[in-house]
Amino acid sequence: MFETKRVKMYKITVVGSGNWGSVAAKLIASNTIKLDSFHDEVRMWVFEEKLPSGEKLTDVINKTNENVKYLPGIKLGKNVIADPDLENAVKDANMLVFVTPHQFMDGICKRLAGKIRADTEGISLIKGMEVTKEGPSMISTLVKKQLGINCSVLMGANIANEIAMEQFSEATVGYSQNKLAAERWVHLFNTPYFNVTAVQDVEGVELCGTLKNVVGIAAGFVDGLEMGNNTKAAIMRIGLKEMIAFSQMLFPSVKDSTYFESCGVADLITTCIGGRNRKIAEAFARNGGKRSFDELEAEMLQGQKLQGVLTAHEVHEVLSHRGLLHMFPLFSAVHAISTGQLPPSAIVKINNEKPRQVQLQSML
Ligand SMILES: NC(=O)c1ccc[n+]([C@@H]2O[C@H](COP(=O)([O-])OP(=O)(O)OC[C@H]3O[C@@H](n4cnc5c(N)ncnc54)[C@H](O)[C@@H]3O)[C@@H](O)[C@H]2O)c1
Ligand SMILES: O=P(O)(O)OC[C@H](O)CO
């Protein structure tokens, strides 16, 4: 009897190596060594930087198997190889995982255009969007347009440090047409402690992940003002209504059922309880808005990046362009407070009569 060997068809590169990027590489690497169809090696592109020791971050990751700056104390797996050269890191891959702060993606896509394999599938773990002269664009759309590849998304209640410690959590893959590719991503990410489900609603999943960061900032203001659980629950409820209204305004195809997946209510809850957006917004409110978000981010996150303040700004641009600010009082207040136009206490003075009455299309 001859033993038939399955061909290793898929080669993975993770584009990004921050807190979540490093955990994503670890998760994936724990699966590629077990699954026949994937090459064992997972390449991880590192935005190179010098550590206080004078060493390069990439060298230290490859020497210690740890991202000592963004995920200290966690072994990534020997099959994770850090690479500071973006073009080199992606050249052999046919599955690309994008996981950088969203503000860097336009530049990264521009550098990658024309330099990736034609048969590449992408997935974005990035919670954010872009607003250009043409209007709002989700990051998966930016990848599709600039690189000419299909791009799914993976979002969920996923505080990276908890998943790094292999505590049970769930995530949602959102896809548009290619169900087979979505199933391959589920296969690649799923572990006994990371339960992944796929839904055919790429915009809904991505907008949940993006907009919850704005609500996380509002929740942080409430904590900084030392208000209680009821207030935070109210902020989360109003925030969820605005998330639904905003998503369905941009994409009427977004499904109500998506909000009940991990990417929806569950991510909103974890972000408002334990996220970085919440933490920095709390410090901002405790300081009475006198220290800027940029200053607090640099001091408290040491290189990690917030997405919520930028997203509040992007949402504000979309709403003011369409003359709809009055229908989104919580989103508008977060933007006004974070830019110093209103004091943090304004977060509980919003007029909640205004948001559009959200009708869940299919759940009622
Ligand atoms: N950390 C989490 O718990 C978590 C969980 C789920 C999703 N996310 C999302 O994942 C995305 C990435 O977040 P993260 O936590 O991995 O990153 P991070 O905030 O921990 O780290 C910042 C990263 O940006 C890199 N960087 C700095 N300047 C850069 C530049 N000019 N160009 C390119 N890269 C640069 C840094 O090297 C670092 O890798 C974000 O959209 C975030 O919302 C994060
Ligand atoms: O720490 P935050 O606020 O960026 O949130 C992290 C994750 O998105 C939670 O799922």
From TrEMBL:
Keywords annotated in UniProt: NAD, Oxidoreductase
Active-site residues, as the UniProt record annotates them: K212 (proton acceptor)
E.C. no: 1.1.1.8
NCBIfam families hit by this protein: glycerol3P_DH (TIGR03376)
Organism: Psophocarpus tetragonolobus
Catalytic activity annotation: sn-glycerol 3-phosphate + NAD(+) = dihydroxyacetone phosphate + NADH + H(+)
Amino-acid positions noted as binding substrate in the UniProt annotation, renumbered to this chain: K127, R276, N277
GO molecular function, one term: protein homodimerization activity
Signal peptide positions (record): none
Superkingdom of this protein's organism: Eukaryota
GO cellular component: cytosol
Protein name: Glycerol-3-phosphate dehydrogenase [NAD(+)]
Keyword Membrane: no
Record-stated family: Belongs to the NAD-dependent glycerol-3-phosphate dehydrogenase family.
Record bears the keyword Disulfide bond: no
Residue ranges of every copy of the Glycerol-3-phosphate dehydrogenase NAD-dependent C-terminal domain listed in the record: 201-348
One record GO biological process: carbohydrate metabolic process
